[in-house]
Amino acid sequence: MQIEKEPKILAILCKWCSYAGADLAGTSRFAYPANVRIVQVPCSGRVDPIMIFKAFVEGYDGVMVSGCHPGDCHYTTGNYHARRRIAVARRLLEFVGVHPDRMHFTWISAAEGKKFAEVCSRFTDKLKNLSGTEKTLARKELAT
Amino acid sequence: MAKVGVFVCHCGVNIAAKVDVKKVVDTLKDMPEVGFAQEYKFMCSSPGQELIRKAIKDNNINRVVVAACSPRMHLPTFQKALASEGLNPYLVSMANIREQCSWVTDDPAEATQKAIDLVARQIKRVVHQDPLDEIYVPMTKTALVIGGGIAGIQAALDIADGNRKVILVEKSPSIGGRMAQLDETFPTLDCSQCILTPKMVEAAQHPNIEIRVNSEVKKVDGYVGNFEVTIEKKATYVDAQKCIGCGICQEKCPVKTVPDDFNAGLNTRAAIAIPFPQAVPAIPVIEADYCKKLIENKCGVCAKICPAEAVVYDDTPKQETVNVGAIVVATGYREMDPAVYTEYGGMKYPDVITGMQFERLISSTGPTGGELKRPSDGKIPKTVVFVQCVGSRDESKAHAYCSGICCMYTAKHTMLYKHHVPDGQAYVSYIDVRAPGKTYEEFVRRAIEEEDVRYLRGRVAKIRRLQNGQYRVYTEDTLVGRAVHIDADMVVLASAVEPQKDAVGLAQILGIACDADGFYTEAHPKLKPIETASAGVFLAGACQGPKDIPASVQQGSAAASKVLALFAKDTMVKSPQIAAVDPTACTGCLTCSYVCHYSAIEEKEFGKRRVAEIIPGKCQGCGACVATCKGKAITLAGFSDDEIYEEIVSCR
């Protein structure tokens, strides 16, 4: 399956660290690909793996989840719950035929605007290289 | 039926220069949900907000989307605008087309398309938003101050003078902190004890202050206005109620081998001791690792001799829980151990000492009674080299940051040295002299010009002990471009300011963040230097970064004013964006309660079944339980599945 257009990315960001980091990328004018769409959640611990699968079903090419750095979670342990859930979700993705690298899990603090822009750019490049590599279930079939 | 008003902001040229605002409005005004659409230069301005109010009145819109900057910036502004027109403030959503679009997208066509997309998603989302009512919770008007140094004392006194109760927790046996160890203070050379001890006594006698020494904070539950704090008092083996502070136990104790922390380890003291003569409270503590009675059940002299029968060998740690509304963290700093500097002898040379050790050595309450004698042989040092930036501004060995106070206290040390040994010679090896405070630069000039202190610009390469008991200090004078060496009787290392050893542990208990160096992070480096990411937790003093006494006192007072402002209200407004269980869908597995960090989920009866119930006062709205619930029985208001999935799905 070849993707001609720019890969479309859903970024699910926690409100305290990563969303603020994305804001800082804006304030500091660090440009990143225009196909990134951000959804705010209170904490990465709120991220339900179904959100990630839903995004792929809806035609996103990649999903990024980012929370506060370990130890910095505003709710103390939410990002640890997220880390475990994502690890499981990754295996499930592979099982249904989506390349696990299409999901990126990272920590971005409120001070890391540059990191946010860089992660978006790198993830975009990675997704471009991935296009056409999935052998099993095409995502079109998943959607039906 | 939802009727959405859409308002697209130009933000001057910040948005309009990249995004074709008119095109955004024209494209979206035909969406079935949209009842009204408009563009404006500055939506956050008064006329901008008036547009929203007018549209609510005239066009009967019942939901609002503002496409402008980040909701972190202006969401409260627009929520107020809705509320003033009688619309629930939670029926507004913001599309972030500045930080997420115009500022980060190079191509105007792409930016416009992205903006349309972002606004459309919020229009779809806002339809699913429900009106929410803010939760009011009562405020506990008692403050907790952690740390009894000068910053904590100042904060406690100011809060107490504002007629609020304060609990002051101090880890060591006495309040006073680092300042109590100092001899004289820059830039006025006034005696540290003379200005500090009256404040210590005032704090101890203040009717609104309760001091808990030998105590540490173990657990913090709750949230701003209603914290529940567990404090543990260590076993001290002395009944503070009975002790009269006579000090006879300290004299008669046969064990005299405990390193004296107050004197920076220069001497040893008894196993039962009052930490220093002016200690508040003046109650001794037994050092359990050294006491013969506690180790091998021998001796017992102190109990026999105590006239007040205050010694209790079977003392145990005691925990208590207190309710407070705000917390001031003032845990201070510690002096770095320069042992990593092996080129300076790695603290193996007896006469190579740290700044704090020098401070104790010249103090009249110090181990030598105020006579400056070097530790190795008790001789009066005639040549002293002061080495600056040991551990500071040195990323390869220790810390990249500047410790801020060493330039000034070294200048002070050179002066005090010259006052003790008028015929001696002081040298200072420095990188830069940083003296930005009021009358600070004049103070350094005074050391150089009046006391004839030689300032040599350069970093010390090595210190070597000579046969004659002197120390050869190899350094350079970069201003003349020459390597030099000085044969000194004593060397003083201005060791770096470091966060306390347990700083990270306390940060995790309090839910606040540390920076890369381990100092506590303020909410905003310029505009919120006192607040932390956790509402109701404030910072004061050197725990936030290296600070001198004036700055610590300022921050202590500033934290107190924040606490008093908080306590001026009788109730706290709590965000209604919290989770709730649908008991009809709940299977009662209670997995949610295992992931809840706030113990906000309890079991309750529902008909014949047991189901989970969320306590609204305890829930902080993180949503961990929502993602955990297999039956999808939990909804997080403001971040419900409907709202989030709509954002994901409606993206085209």
What would you note in describing this structure?
The complex is a heterodimer of chains A (144) and B (652). Chain A is of the alpha/beta class. Chain A has five helices and four strands. Chain A has helices at 18-27, 49-57, 78-96, 113-130, 139-143; strands spanning 9-14, 36-41, 62-67, 103-107. In chain A, strand 1 (9-14), helix 1 and strand 2 form a beta-alpha-beta unit. The two termini of chain A are 16 Å apart. Helix content of chain B is 28%, strand content 24%. The mean pLDDT of chain B is 94. Chain B is built from 18 helices and 34 strands. Chain A binds chain B through residues 8, 10, 16, 19-20, 22-23, 25-27, 29-32, 34, 37-43, 45-48, 51, 54-55, 58, 60, 71-72, 74-78, 81, 85, 117, and chain B through 70-72, 96, 98-101, 103-107, 110-111, 113-114, 117-118, 121, 504, 508, 511, 513, 533-534, 577, 595, 597, 620-624, 626-628, 636, 638-639, 641, 644-645, 647-649, 651.
Element layout with pairings:
The complex is a heterodimer of chains A (144) and B (652).
Chain A: E1 9-14, H1 18-27, E2 36-41, H2 49-57, E3 62-67, H3 78-96, E4 103-107, H4 113-130, H5 139-143
Parallel strand pairs in A: 1-2, 1-3, 3-4
Helix pairs in contact in A: 1-4
Chain B: E1 4-9, H1 21-28, E2 34-40, H2 46-58, E3 63-68, H3 71-84, E4 92-96, H4 98-102, H5 108-128, E5 135-138, E6 142-146, H6 150-161, E7 165-169, E8 184-185, E9 190-191, H7 192-205, E10 209-212, E11 215-223, E12 226-233, H8 248-252, E13 258-259, E14 268-269, E15 272-273, E16 285-286, H9 292-296, H10 301-305, E17 318-324, E18 326-329, E19 333-335, E20 352-354, H11 355-362, E21 383-390, H12 406-420, E22 425-430, H13 440-449, E23 454-457, E24 462-465, E25 471-477, E26 482-488, E27 490-495, E28 497-499, H14 503-510, E29 537-539, H15 549-567, E30 571-574, E31 579-581, H16 591-595, E32 601-606, E33 609-614, H17 624-628, E34 634-636, H18 641-649
Parallel strand pairs in B: 1-2, 1-3, 3-4, 6-7, 6-18, 7-10, 18-29, 20-27, 21-22, 21-27, 22-23
Antiparallel strand pairs in B: 5-30, 8-9, 11-12, 12-17, 13-14, 15-16, 19-28, 24-25, 25-26, 31-34, 32-33
